[in-house]
Design goal:
Elements: H1 2-11, H2 21-46, H3 54-67, H4 71-94, H5 109-143, H6 152-160, H7 165-189
Length: about 190
Amino acid sequence: MAVWRLSEALFGASGPGGRKASKRALNAGRCVFYGFVAFSVLTFVTSSKNSEGSDATSRDLTSRALELPLGRWLVGLAGLVVLGVGVGIGVRAARRTFHKHLEKARMSRRVQRVVDVLGVTGGVARGLVYAAAGVFVVIAAVDYDPGKAKGLDGTLRALAGTPAGPWLLALVALGLVVFGLFSVALARYRRV
């Protein structure tokens, strides 16, 4: 995703307005975001302390950011951005804005319904995970405690610690699998 967004930032995206400066800047931001997510996941996978993983990375970045002038505000703003991205992802999925990217003429009615369900369910699940991670970063800024910042794995562990933990994690996992299936369908039927 990071490489794809980088290519769109450098060369422009397909479709109307894909070469506009605003579209390129948005894709550059997405490249940075996905690059950070990829870095966090790779750090987690290759870490000799897999129990810490991206949580340790998040805490390190958060503690360094909190030490900066206005660091608390910067961390809080970053958390609000991640929270907003999560809410935006979920809202766009629920509003089915992905329809504009689909070549519906190549899809049967049944395939359209399946892709619709996959897109909404998977998108909302992905948005919830991002929003929860953003909430943890905001809490770290408000409490001035880098230890409360959580990466993706820490967010999922925190969800597991709730009374409905195993069921909630199973739903999130199912939602993310559904998003993966939607991504495959989108690759197949995307308007290019």
